[in-house]
Design goal:
Layout: E1 2-14, E2 20-32, E3 36-40, H1 47-55, E4 62-67, E5 70-71, H2 77-87, E6 88-91, H3 103-111, H4 119-128, H5 144-156, E7 162-166, H6 174-191, E8 194-199, H7 202-205, E9 210-213, H8 214-217
Parallel strand pairs: 3-8, 3-9, 6-7, 7-8
Antiparallel strand pairs: 1-2, 1-4, 4-5
Length: 222
Amino acid sequence: MLLLAAHDLLKAFALPGGGTHRVVDVAEFSLVAGAQLALRGESGSGKTTFLHLIAGILAADGGSITLDGREVATLGEAARDRLRAETIGYIFQTFNLLQGHTVLENVEFGMAFGRGVDRAHAEALLRRVGLGDKLGHFPRQLSTGQQQRVAVARALANRPKLVLADEPTGNLDARNAREALALIREVCRENGAALLLVSHDEGVLGQFEQVQDFAVLNCAVP
């Protein structure tokens, strides 16, 4: 079943001296439910902007995005926010954890924007990623690899149909990167979530059966 489709997707940013720079120009892109796809792209290639457009963090200048059968641009702001909260989980390279809140609170906070806080589910996810004994810890008390695990649990908290991962191993050493990637893929499979990951790391990309070059997909002028 088709989960995500983008058509004639455009995004440009204003240049300081005037004019615009087109960053995303994607004619066609699709992802089926449960698939795991990696996009290869160097820094500055527009792949993060592409993910932000899919997630609704940025608004497109043109084109369409259909998510779980719904055309995102036609929805009102509240409906769009609800669709994003209930359908998409996002794993950021920098984790984006709330430093003043505990591990458990970070996961619960992500739930607050979706179907509502379910403490038992949050605790179960944290146990699944190996942090069952860290629920009351703050992010600063965790290793980098453990913080990434919190980010993974938070991304899966609302039982999303699609997980977006933006260079999710970029701040990890080689061993933690391998473990984190294996965990992300396994937890997505267990939860029936599709995974769309972007990376420039060939070690990461080499672990995926489906890899697509973003430079081929994206017709924007570098």
